[in-house]
Write a structure and sequence with these properties.
By secondary structure, the protein is mostly helical. Helix content is about 65%, strand content about 0%. α2 crosses α4.
Length: about 100
């Protein structure tokens, strides 16, 4: 009975290793594309949240206003990635 349990645990461990290996094999070619798509989506979201402060009319500003303090930590890296050297917001100097 103990021998059968050991065999079952060894087989289960081997199956998990094979499953992890196959998952990495199939997922790894798309990891960069998924990361780029997520970064683009995050950039669009940041633009939506801060567009009202930059003078772009935003119909969802009422809903995005409470997100601004939460996203303020990532604002500097976002505007430098967008090619804006200094903060585009007049009342907000992050650089």
């Amino acid at each position: 009975m103990v021998k059968g349990l050991r065999l079952r645990l060894t087989l289960l461990s081997w199956m998990r290793a094979v499953s992890t290996l196959l998952s990495e094999f199939y997922v790894s070619p798309y990891r960069g594309a998924v990361a780029r798509a997520r970064r683009d989506q995050d950039d669009l979201f940041m633009l939506l949240v801060y567009s009202d402060l930059m003078g772009v009319p935003n119909p969802a500003s009422y809903y995005t206003l409470e997100l601004q303090p939460i996203l303020m930590e990532r604002f500097h890296e976002w505007h430098t990635r967008m090619g804006i050297e200094h903060s585009p917001l007049d009342g907000l100097k992050c650089c």
